[in-house]
Amino acid sequence: MNTTTLWDLGGWQFAALALAALLVGFSKTAVSGANTVSLAVFAAVLPARASTGVLLPILIAGDVLAVLAYRRHAHWPTLWRLFPAVAAGVVVGTVFLMRADDGLVRTSIGVILLLMAGVTVWRRRAGAEEEPDAVTTRAGRAKARSYGVLGGFTTMVANAGGPVMSLYLLSAGFRKMGFLGTSAFFFLIVNTSKLPFSVGLGLIDAESLLLDAALVLFVVPGALLGKWAVSRINQRLFEHLVVAATVAGGLQLLVR
Q: What separation in angstroms does the CA of 251 have from each of 16, 96, 246, 256?
């Protein structure tokens, strides 16, 4: 794999990756979607395509910690309706990743994130909120399929599915704890299922796993910090932070 090994990293480079790993833990237990900043840091320090393979096991470690913290709050009807569409999106993303260069990948995802952030803000200002059980309606199922495909696509090509699913869960009316519990199980299952695809594409190998082993230790304190912080964030601020993180992630992908 064309990546920087653990032994090739300078002190500041490892420090930047360690901080990004800590932010992964924080985002998984506090503000989902904020790990787009981690995505940007990894892509800046490592080759862009290879960085997705290094980041994936770190994300999975954060997912495990989030599930342990919020396992009682997951909304499984939503999850079951999302998974088939997400699987289709992962397949499409794999094919796209085989053919597209880094620039096209970043631009495509950045545009998707900004458009969906705009739609989410507009819907919430218009009062178009739903309850989680609305996923059983025809409109709810259609929306779940649309977001599911986009979530699968973005998570496969750049580990950027967090903002997509964050916007879906907000638009579906999830409150803070239901949001965190549902997204925790969602990303643990989806990210784990991506492993064979990433290995097959050569994005994960012994060198990347060695770097992961050094960085995963920083995920734990980040997750603990997020668990402490989330109880101190009210619902409105929580929603604003999620949307702001999505917009920031979309912009950094476009301007990079």
A: 20, 21, 9, 8
